[in-house]
Amino acid sequence: PDVIIEAQFDDNDTEHGQDHLQDTLTDDIKKLSLDTSEKGKAGGVTGVHRTKQDDGPKINDPRLLPDEFLQRTAKVVYILEKKHSRAATGFIKLLADRNSELFKRCAMFSPVDHRVPRVYVPLADCPPDFVAKPEAYSQMLFICRIVDWKEDSNFASGQLCKSLGQAGEIEPESEGILTEYGVDFSDFSPEVLECLPQNLPWVISPGELAKRRDLR
């Protein structure tokens, strides 16, 4: 029977190249072919009549192949917890197909993090003059939040939350990173500020310094 062997290409194989991997597979196929042909010859010499029930397991049974030739597969069946904030930093641009109906309604959001999919965002969320002057916003960072991603679409759907500023500047880049990871960087509430010393300037007392380890 025909034998299909699937091998994994790991780091060790890269040292010897693709030819080495091909030679290894060829040798293994030859060995399997020799095994089956020798069994056939042996049966013919002895004259033993082999019935279908007497046949051993066929060589193309995947359970008989070595583990290194098997590719394990799996399928995601359920999402237990959504860990990502669904927020991403990136740039907006016009869609390529100007004649499509989607061009009149949506723009394309391209995240800086390539692990996040590209997102369709409504033109209503974009700046008013974006369609007329898209090049003016080519280096402007925006925050987009993904709201949906249909199974039959390559792109997610989302909403633009705010404009951060020019890419490459410290404040917009920092705010984008904090938003992506769900870090609350808003101002402290009055209740929190009341916990701080009110008589300023405040200094640590000598007695407190004596029992503390100075890490300044």
From TrEMBL:
Where is the protein localized? Answer: Cytoplasm
- Residues in domain CSD2? 107-182
Q: Where is this region: Disordered?
A: 36-63
* Cited InterPro entries: Dis3_CSD2, NA-bd_OB-fold, RNR_Ribonuclease
- Classify the source by domain of life: Eukaryota
Transmembrane intervals: none
Alphabetical GO CC annotations of the entry are: P-body
Which keywords accompany this UniProt record?
Cytoplasm, Exonuclease, Hydrolase, Magnesium, Metal-binding, Nuclease, RNA-binding
From start to end residue, where is composition biased (Basic and acidic residues)?
51-63
A single GO BP annotation from the record? mRNA catabolic process
Q: GO MF annotations for this entry?
A: 3'-5'-RNA exonuclease activity; metal ion binding; poly(U) RNA binding
Q: What is this protein called?
A: DI3L2 exonuclease
| Name of the coding gene | Dis3l2_0
